[in-house]
Design brief:
This protein is α+β, with helices and mostly antiparallel strands and 344 residues long. It has helices spanning 58-66, 69-77, 92-99, 214-219, 223-230, 236-250, 263-275, 302-316, 324-329, 333-339, and strands spanning 24-25, 28-31, 34-36, 43-44, 55-56, 85-87, 104-107, 110-113, 116-122, 136-143, 146-155, 158-170, 173-175, 178-179, 185-186, 189-193, 196-200, 279-286, 289-296, 322-323.
């Protein structure tokens, strides 16, 4: 099955008090935001996978800036002297060079004008390692009374990407030049990733639903999401593994490639590599039949899982008419296991 030219389709993060957007993924059907997994036995047609994240250029512009060594050093250098937050009020030249002078964000089909941008350098995911030690970079986008927050994390070798989704919230302020990012709190809302919905900022309900601080949203584990993924047969992780294993046999260069045509493969490869530490798995050859069964363990951080799932969905969006069972067995899945998975 040939891999069509990659088209990165970012569907807007619909942030409302209740979000429920049906998605379509071949025979995996969603109804009222709930996933109804079925076992694949024959031809599978893949189309746009419904996941949600912000559309527009702000997140892409910042991710690109973090992945450019010169710009990254400029951003990091702006925090010299013990600063933990910089803003467009006192670092306008740097911030305008990244986002432009009139940045906008598209949310729920509407263009939102951003009044001010703040960047926080701090550990928000609870990890002590990364491209900047323990630190992540979080954008706070002030749009009148709303403040949108999105965090970015990087591996030790770089590869910065958005962590989790973008959240709408509020933040205490006396004026646009005096903002307290520590007081940012997520508004009560429901978010969606694929067929899974989760709540934040609730006044009651499960502990995970009541989380509202950026550090909580970026570090908390979510066993409900874990179980939702594991209940699928095959899981999204199984499907991502098979896609990557198949393409690896054809041309393994995507692992280190900077070719735009191969970026979706590379991004999904890095996501699979990241997610492995949270999985239990079975990838063996039983009487000539390849078995790929990858499930999540409890305790996987929700934000990381969301980031990885989005990478998988972006990759699988580019395939259609895949006979899953035949495809899985007609390619050397073990080659990928021996050369990559087993070494991670």
């Amino acid at each position: 099955m040939s891999l069509n030219k990659f088209k990165f389709v970012l569907i807007i993060l619909a942030v409302v008090f209740v979000v429920s957007v049906p998605g379509v993924f071949a025979v995996w059907t969603y109804a009222s935001g709930q996933v109804n997994p079925v076992i694949i036995t024959s031809l599978v047609s893949l189309s746009e996978f419904d996941y949600q994240s912000s559309s527009g250029t702000i997140e892409e512009a910042f991710k690109n800036a973090l992945n450019d060594l010169t710009t990254y050093n400029s951003i990091k250098g702006a925090f010299d002297g013990g600063k933990t937050v910089i803003s467009s009020a006192d670092n306008g030249s740097l911030i305008n060079s990244i986002f432009g002078s009139n940045p906008v964000l598209t949310i729920n089909g509407q263009t939102v004008e951003i009044n001010s941008i703040l960047i926080q350098r701090a550990n928000v995911d609870g990890s002590n390692t990364g491209a900047d030690g323990a630190n992540e970079y979080t954008l706070y986008l002030v749009a009148d009374s709303n403040v949108y927050a999105m965090s970015f994390s990087g591996e030790s070798a770089g590869n910065w990407d958005q962590l989790g989704q973008t959240y709408i919230g509020t933040m205490e302020q006396t004026d646009v030049n005096n903002l307290n990012v520590g007081a940012w709190t997520a508004s009560s809302a429901t978010y969606q990733i694929g067929g899974y919905e989760y709540k934040v900022g609730q006044s009651s309900g499960n502990h995970i639903d009541r989380l509202a601080k950026i550090e909580q949203l970026m570090s908390a584990s979510d066993d409900y999401l874990m179980q939702k993924i594991n209940d699928q047969n095959p899981t999204d992780i199984d499907k991502a593994y098979v896609v990557l294993a198949t393409e690896y046999v054809k041309d393994s260069s995507f692992v280190t490639s900077t070719d735009e045509e191969k970026l979706a493969l590379k991004k999904a490869y890095l996501a699979l590599k990241n997610i492995k530490k949270y999985t239990r798995y079975k990838i063996i050859n039983e009487n000539g039949k390849i078995v790929v069964e990858i499930e999540l363990n409890n305790g996987a951080p929700r934000a990381e899982l969301i980031t990885d799932l989005i990478a998988f969905y972006e990759l699988m969006d580019n395939y259609d008419s895949i006979p899953y069972d035949e495809w899985r067995q007609s390619n050397n899945i073990i080659t990928f296991y021996n050369n990559q998975w087993s070494n991670w």
